[in-house]
Amino acid sequence: ETGVTQTPRHLVMGMTNKKSLKCEQHLGHNAMYWYKQSAKKPLELMFVYSLEERVENNSVPSRFSPECPNSSHLFLHLHTLQPEDSALYLCASSQDYRSGELFFGEGSRLTVL
Amino acid sequence: RKEVEQDPGPFNVPEGATVAFNCTYSNSASQSFFWYRQDCRKEPKLLMSVYSSGNEDGRFTAQLNRASQYISLLIRDSKLSDSATYLCVVKDSSASKIIFGSGTRLSIRP
């Protein structure tokens, strides 16, 4: 199995839909991250979890709601999104949240109509 | 001023050439530095960490200049497979703030 797995790989949703992105890591890491990557912009950190506790929340709109039920799984719940939220959402993990060595999943490409 | 700045490129160089690019950072308290590589429509992957003394991994050499607040990446004997976007990553002294640059696009031509 690959180290960090994300599903779905592609998602198209309307602005009134509710959907979730899922991330699973098989590396035994203690920290997990959600990043957003939009065209021609640097990766934007959204959320950081360490041992299932949120340690960073970078002023992300409440229409994005993270959930970390255990150290191997991370979800991003989406509701009432806007077209400008269309982007690639990348999940990553690291040994601990002090490490800068991140292992990324392949990403979930989201299109909001 | 951006926290991490990179020349977006593209750098278009012939196979076998040596190419180098820099990344500047604004926070003098930054502690850790990395280069990541991202292929088109793929996820970023760690290329190498950048140590104070510099480090080398095969054809790749990374250097840190704390006085001038930049890191560099040198690629020797470039291959077609080196074509990618190279992301500079800086981690500050607080536990979890990791900042990505916008990336430098490199294209190696035959």
Structural class of chain A: mainly beta
Order of helices and strands of chain A: EEEEEEEEEEE
Largest sheet of chain B, described in full? Answer: 6 strands, mixed
Largest sheet composition of chain A: 7 strands, mixed
Structure description:
The complex is a heterodimer of chains A (113) and B (110). Chain A is mainly β and 113 residues long. Helices cover 0% and strands 57% of the residues of chain A. In chain A, strand 9 and strand 10 form a beta hairpin. The mean pLDDT of chain A is 93. With 110 residues, chain B is mainly beta. In chain B, the strands form 2 sheets. In chain B, strands 2, 4, 5, 9, 10 and 11 form a 6-stranded mixed beta sheet that branches. A 5-stranded antiparallel beta sheet of chain B has the order 1-3-8-7-6, with no helix packed on it. The mean pLDDT of chain B is 93. Classes of the chains: A mainly beta (113), B mainly beta (110). At the A-B interface, strand 5 and strand 10 of A face strand 4, strand 5, strand 9 and strand 10 of B.
Entry summary:
Chain A is mainly beta and about 110 residues long. Chain A contains no helices and 11 strands. The interface of A and B includes residues 31, 103 and 106 of A.
Write the layout of secondary structure elements.
The complex is a heterodimer of chains A (113) and B (110).
Chain A: E1 4-7, E2 10-13, E3 18-25, E4 31-37, E5 44-50, E6 53-57, E7 64-70, E8 73-79, E9 87-94, E10 103-104, E11 108-112
Parallel strand pairs in A: 2-11
Antiparallel strand pairs in A: 1-3, 3-8, 4-5, 4-9, 5-6, 7-8, 9-10, 9-11
Chain B: E1 4-6, E2 11-14, E3 19-25, E4 32-38, E5 44-50, E6 55-57, E7 60-65, E8 70-75, E9 84-91, E10 98-100, E11 104-109
Parallel strand pairs in B: 2-11
Antiparallel strand pairs in B: 1-3, 3-8, 4-5, 4-9, 6-7, 7-8, 9-10, 9-11
